[in-house]
Design brief:
It is a single chain. About 75% of the residues lie in helices and about 0% in strands. It is an all-alpha fold. It has one domain (about 45-140, about 180-310): Sodium/glucose cotransporter. Helix 4 (about 65-75) crosses helix 13 (about 285-300). The protein is globular, with a radius of gyration of 20 Å. The model has no long low-confidence stretch (mean pLDDT about 85).
């Protein structure tokens, strides 16, 4: 299927739902932000987040547009070995919840750089703050906004990609500035539920079209229905799970400021721990909700010029 054949026609109802959703997100930010009176309320939501919000917010932080498109594309191109990043995250979050998280919460810090300053010195804080800003701008946010703009361009093909990216950045910035972390936690939970629901619908629709589980297995590329690929595999050899994926998971789930900030908002240690463990549980079904739909796409839409087009 060629990209030129993929066309969408927005109806008034579609546009109305989209506008209502954007206004709803901004309204949530304004409504929650009206009570923010100090730094702790803005940056940590008054340290009142429960485990449910923490778990979904952590999952949604990981499940950006980049990963939503990328996991399906990897499933289309290479099979299910990309799931190693998700189940390994579950193990890392379990370790984090038991051994690391209590130290963060008992320190009463507001940010990861502040924790490093208390633990080491001011140079650590400055260096990690600069690293966090750089990676947030040029890796995490850049990829997420680009993936989101690519999706929106299907709906608004006459608008330049640059302006779609600017729109996403401005709207996201508005509700964060209005509501602080509490608004982010609530909207992340809403969006996380919607993303998981959409993934589940797509999985069952795709499975209904293929007809059986064996058809899904057969749709995978050669040697693509295994998480432990040979040591000479070009994409993810099995030693890389422990020499690469594990350490990336430790950085992302235990030291990344954007992730840890959500845990620091927990009302107590138990809610922080249960939230981290809940997020770990949510990582496991991503095999079915995101990766396998991409694998099924090999049968439904063979010979795509770009594997990431499988969602489009």
């Amino acid at each position: 299927m060629e990209e030129a054949n993929i066309q969408f026609e927005l109806t008034g109802l579609d546009l109305g739902i989209l506008i209502a959703y954007v206004i709803g997100v901004l309204a949530i930010g304004f409504w929650i932000g009206r009570k923010k009176e100090d730094q702790e309320s803005f940056f940590l939501g008054g340290r009142g987040s429960n485990w449910f919000l923490i778990g979904f917010a952590l999952m949604a932080a990981n499940l950006s547009g980049t990963s939503y498109v990328g996991l399906a594309g990897a499933g289309y191109d290479d099979g299910i070995s990309v799931w190693n990043y998700e189940w390994m995250a579950t193990l890392v979050l379990c370790f984090f919840a038991v051994f690391i998280l209590p130290y963060y919460l008992h320190s009463k810090v507001s940010t990861m750089p502040e924790f490093l300053e208390k633990r080491y010195d001011g140079r650590s804080r400055v260096l990690f703050s600069a690293f966090t800003i750089f990676t947030a701008m040029f890796i995490d946010s850049a990829g997420a906004m680009y993936a989101g703009a690519i999706t929106l361009q299907l709906l608004f093909p006459d608008i330049a990609l640059f302006w779609l990216i600017v729109t996403i950045a401005v709207l996201g910035g508005i509700y964060v500035l209005l509501g602080g972390l509490s608004a982010v936690m609530v909207t992340d939970t809403i969006q996380g539920i919607l993303l998981l629901t959409a993934g589940g619908v797509i999985f069952f629709v795709g499975m209904a079209q293929l007809g059986s589980w064996q058809a899904i297995v057969d749709a995978a590329p050669p040697d693509g229905f295994t998480v432990f690929k040979p040591a000479d595999d070009d994409f993810l050899p099995w030693p890389g799970i422990f020499s690469g994926v594990l350490w990336l998971g430790i950085y992302y789930w235990i030291t990344n400021h954007v992730v840890v900030q959500k845990v620091l908002s927990a009302r107590n240690v138990n809610h922080g721990r249960w939230g981290a463990l809940f997020c770990g549980l949510l990582q496991l079904p991503l095999l079915f909700l995101l990766i396998l739909p991409g694998t099924m796409g090999r049968s439904l839409y063979p010979d795509l010029p770009d594997p990431d087009m499988v969602w489009r």
